[in-house]
């Protein structure tokens, strides 16, 4: 079995335009009520990396120094109190497949430990996309697979305000400073400067917590001893691009 890090991010998105998710303190608090390592162990057999932001390892803009979120119930409760939240209940929309249900059920259980009630709403993929894009879904479990290995692909489509809904920014996140930085970065030719900019933007987005960041997964492949020089692509739907050599 060969595990290949994939260019993806799994997350729970929050509709940043509707209560209670229009309050950054609520979004941050929910990020602090999830034990990501326990979730990865329970539903992914440990074959994933806890996400500190939307950019996965190996992509420009990823930084080990990014300050993400970790389990901190006391700080979370303080933030909810500051936001005037005494009781928190919301619907979590997810795709009608077993894997998504198990993940969302785990999240439901984790939040319930801390007094947050989560109602699971299962939908077929097309209906789920419609519910998210039209603003019906306040919270939704989804993933993003990169089209190419660049930090821009994990930031601009997902968080620039021009891309609300079907454009990729399903959280309807809007921040004028971040919009301007994204526009500046996409015009930058200097590779090193560009990488620094995406790391900076990634941190600024994380600080606003438009998502509950979960993990970056690996893809598993079965091979044998007579298959050599396997070159897997980490890009989604690029299995046809696998390069191998057979040894007789």
Question: What are its keywords?
Answer:
9 strands, 8 helices, seven-stranded mixed beta sheet, 248 residues, alpha+beta, two-stranded antiparallel sheet, disordered C terminus
Structural Rg: 19 Å
Biggest beta sheet attributes: 7 strands, mixed
Question: Secondary-structure element sequence?
Answer: EEHHEHEHEHEHHHEEE
Mean pLDDT: 90
| Through-space gap between termini | 20 Å
CATH architecture: Roll
**Counted beta strands:** 9
Can you tell me the CATH class? Alpha Beta
Overall tally of structural domains: 1
| CATH homology superfamily | Dipeptide-binding Protein, Domain 3
Tally of separate helices: 8
Helix content: 25-40%
CATH fold-level topology:
Dipeptide-binding Protein, domain 3
Question: Proportion of β residues?
Answer: 15-25%
- Which geometry do the CA atoms define? globular
Low-confidence stretches: 231-246
Description:
By secondary structure, the chain is of the alpha+beta class. It has helices spanning 24-31, 36-44, 73-82, 98-112, 125-133, 156-159, 176-186, 191-208, and strands at residues 2-5, 8-14, 48-50, 88-95, 116-123, 139-145, 211-221, 227-231, 243-246. Strands 1, 2, 3, 4, 5, 6 and 7 form a seven-stranded mixed beta sheet that branches. Strand 4 (88-95), helix 4 (98-112) and strand 5 form a beta-alpha-beta unit. Helix 1 runs antiparallel to helix 3. 38% of the residues are buried.
